[in-house]
Specification:
alpha/beta, 778 residues, globular, 27 strands, single chain, 28 helices, binds adenosine-5'-triphosphate
Length: 778
Amino acid sequence: GDATSPSMATTMSTKKKIAIMTSGGDSPGMNGVVRACVRMAIHMGCDAYCVYEGYEGLVQGGNLIRKMEWHDVRGWLSEGGTLIGTARCMAFYERPGRLTAAKNMILNGIDALIICGGDGSLTGADKFRAEWPSLIEELVTKGELKPEQVQRYKHLNIVGLVGSIDNDLSGTDATIGCYSALARICYAVDLIEATASSHSRAFVIEVMGRHCGWLALMAGVATGADFIFIPEKPSEDNWREEMCSIVRQHRDLGKRKTIVIIAEGALDKQGGKITPTMVKDLLADKDGLGLDTRITTLGHVQRGGTAVAYDRMLATLQGVEAVRAVLEATPETETCFIAITENKIIRKPLMEAVIDTQKVAKAIQRQDFDEAMALRDAEFSEQYKSFMMTTAVQLDTGIMLPEKERMRIGFINVGAPAGGMNAAVRAGVAYCMSRGHEALAIHNGFAGFARHHGDKPLGAVRPFDWLEIDGWASKGGSEIGTNRELPGESGMETIANLVELYEFDALFLIGGFEAFHAVAQLRKARDEYPSLCIPMTLLPATISNNVPGTEYSLGSDTCLNELVDYCDKIKQSASATRRRVFVIETQGGRSGYVATLGGLGVGASAVYTPEEGLGLDMLAADVRHLKEVFAKDKGQSRAGRLILINEKASKVYNAKLIADILRDEAHGRFESREGIPGHMQQGGVPSAMDRCRAVRLAIRCIQQLEKFGKNAHNRCKADPMSSTVIGIKGASVVFTPIKKLEDEETDWPNRRPKAAFWLGMKEIVDILGGRPRYIGPE
Ligand code: ATP
């Protein structure tokens, strides 16, 4: 509202009160939700409340419903679990409990409730909402509340957020916390693999998921496990033979370790439980494989710890969206929850999601496993197929092509290494093998390809070896080598000749903006060199996430995790010593994506991007603001503050200079330092998300190349889809012709897409960081 409007006084007295609650099992990211909701509510001129201990707090009321101030949630983004507590509340299952809860809400004047929890919690919320009018009526009839007291609360304004490590709610691709849990699992499996390999052992690893196999499935995909057991998709009746035969084949090929991942709720086709011990006994059976086998149950470590960057982003953006939804709701609006589909955050009807989720559980109970799979999100079954295709390559998976349709496909990495490149190559090769294609590695990018032996260009090209690539699922860097050189620089004629010499039917490129540029050059050179009229597709992989045609590049998630880790540590050191502002320089080229999303993940006080630029006025405004903040700060928040600046945000101001300016201006009230994480941002081991997406997207890329098949010269000339970029755009995964991207969507001088989908997130970083709105030079 307008501050000068005459109705200001009345709006003030009837300030909306929004309460936030976490419920069910805790999950990493819940604190980020609370922080975002509290601050967004306050920003929107409302009072923010927290209901402590889940539904128990609503039922008990009193001290468990507390008003929250802006500074109460400082530093919460990096805390694990939920700081406002959660509990299983038996009373809320029954109407009398819910009646008391309704009364407490009204007595505290709560207008709206945001609930972050799993399917149980949201089922409870849905029931509460449906019952609300009758609860109010009962409270009045019984004389517990007066009619005028309930006047304002005729409708329950409720919004759900899905916080759960299981990723078990239908209608959303990811729940807040699931990628953090997956990260913990992958970390553990990576550790176990080393010892398994040393002793040539087998490990059966049990992960959480009583009714949902998402964690087990994705862990299998990310780590390249030999076999998985999930509730939704029991193996065939002969799962024993199936598992043993895959394990045996992998062993025959020389693999020294065996990893089987089993979800808590794993079932066989008859609905009988499959336990880790059953699997272990089978692997260890002297008359069979006779492997030295151990069981590791990961248990609660999966829930523990701080949230990964993705969960912080999800928690923050969804929390903000929940507050918006609450404020926009009318009595007619359908109750919603906040979902994410691919990269798009959307409101969806709560009731539908709850019903669909229950349907999955019922389908599993009925042993209608096809139905259970169908009810999971599209990505789930796609990843299941991906897993089967990439692990059981040596089996006849029934998708082998006839001889004459098999292609020779060149794999090439271009640009700087990024997390997930190797996982993508591995998955692409495995898929090729299962189809009968010949996958060939082109080493060290186009520079390597164009290398001369004597005066003859021979190229560094060789076939892949299964055993070698099988270990690449979790490897960082680029195993086949990568190089920034463009084909134009290497010599287009040489490249075209080599494509002909090696009889490539298709090219699969993985890389960043250089790779994008390379595909553009190859496409343009087709007129001159007919050998280049083969299908080619690019899977974007760069930490900068600046490739046109996609909102996500492999490696960008790994980078954000490294950056967020780094900033967490810096922040801790800052708060342990003195009041300090750290100015951190991030990578990202001329794209402010990394700086902005990093800022979102750590709660930065300011973020400087090349898109927005940085001038004297903006800097002065931020310096002034920080001085005010520290002046007001009575020591309740010793935690350090962070400013993130992209390496190319300004030609003049860099991290060091800004830190110096701040220190000079602070006059001893606070300190300032710069930090430059540099190449650390490329990451060591790629993140679970980058590994999983690498697998899924790489397989899609090869399938796209297959659409053109062999001898596609004429079709490639005519069809723009013969050279494409795969990308996640909004709610879908799409291939876009490179020609279209070149002409319409690329900001060539700045080497980034023209439109940055994340620009709106910058505003959210500013709002939640309490940064005053910068309106331009005075
Ligand atoms: P997770 O997926 O992590 O287990 P959850 O939200 O599914 O989380 P639950 O224990 O099922 O966890 O639910 C949390 C609380 O929500 C319950 O203790 C109860 O208070 C309330 N609740 C769950 N289901 C219902 C229901 N059908 N009716 C009323 N309240 C419910």
